[in-house]
From TrEMBL:
The keyword Secreted does not apply. Coiled coil: none annotated. The keyword Methyltransferase does not apply. Residues 1-32 form the signal peptide. Residues 33-179 form the YncI copper-binding domain. Keywords: Membrane, Signal, Transmembrane, Transmembrane helix. This is YncI copper-binding domain-containing protein. The chain crosses the membrane at residues 210-234. Gene3D superfamilies: Uncharacterised protein YcnI-like PF07987, DUF1775. It holds the Pfam family DUF1775. InterPro entries: YcnI-copper_dom, YcnI-like_sf. It comes from the Bacteria. It comes from Micromonospora ureilytica.
Length: 244
């Protein structure tokens, strides 16, 4: 019986390990590509996003990143944040119709951003790097697809250029920024997380205070009962016993 139990436990452990490997192993391989974070922003506004670049090679380092901005969704203002050890360049293209930014009509827009590592700044195996960008005003489209090229020190290039397709997971997915429609003017802004959480906190505190108050009241009532019982017993002892 003991041997059967040990065999069953070992089989269960192996099954769990295999399932975990399948689930987490697949998740790891599926997520090991260039992404844009956060993944959502609002149409018409400005957003600070970062292109997150994991290094997938075991022997080579990432030395260059090229991000192409979508032609169907030009952005008038594009600025980059300095990344230590990396140089950045931008390319522009003509846009028609022009893009309006703060009352000005722009006939050019950034079409490509390229980061290049210098010295020992390359993204080494087992590491990742983020490349922040400010974009705006964001176009009136549902999403922006940023086709990206990741170059390694051994000359290999990972082409993250596959656009999303319903019901399938692209083999080399491009980073996608989903754009939500702006809230109508005059509508109430959504409550913050702190504001939403505070009523619950107050309810907890009120509930705890009520419980404590009821407990104290019960204790006082019990003591009062003991005192009244003692007084009644003492009075009974003092009263003379009636004769028959």
């Amino acid at each position: 019986m003991t041997r059967i139990r040990r065999t069953a436990s070992a089989a269960a452990a192996l099954a769990f390990t295999a399932a975990a490997t399948a689930v987490f192993g697949f998740a790891g391989s599926a997520s090991a590509h260039v992404t844009v974070n956060p993944k959502e922003a609002t149409q018409g506004g400005y957003a600070r996003v970062a292109f997150r670049v994991p290094n997938e090679s075991d022997t080579a380092s990432t030395t260059k990143l090229e991000v192409v901005l979508p032609e169907n969704a030009p952005v008038g203002s594009v600025s980059t944040m300095p990344v230590p050890g990396w140089t950045v360049t931008t390319e522009k293209r003509k846009v028609d119709p022009p893009i309006e930014v703060h009352g000005s009509q722009l006939t050019e827009a950034v079409s490509k951003i390229t980061w290049t590592a210098s010295g020992d700044a390359a993204v080494k195996p087992g590491q990742f790097q983020e490349f922040p960008v400010s974009l705006g005003p964001l176009p009136q489209v549902e999403s922006m697809v940023f086709k990206t090229l990741q170059t390694y020190s051994d000359g290999n290039i990972s082409r993250w250029i596959d656009e999303p397709a319903p019901g399938t997971e692209p083999e080399h997915p491009a980073p996608v920024l989903t754009l939500a429609a702006a809230a109508p003017e005059g509508s109430a802004a959504p409550a913050s997380a702190a504001a939403v959480a505070s009523p619950d906190d107050d309810d907890d505190e009120d509930g705890n205070g009520l419980a404590v108050g009821l407990g104290v009241a019960g204790l006082v009532a019990g003591l009062a009962g003991l005192v009244l019982g003692g007084l009644a017993f003492a009075r009974t002892r003092r009263e003379p016993v009636a004769k028959a």
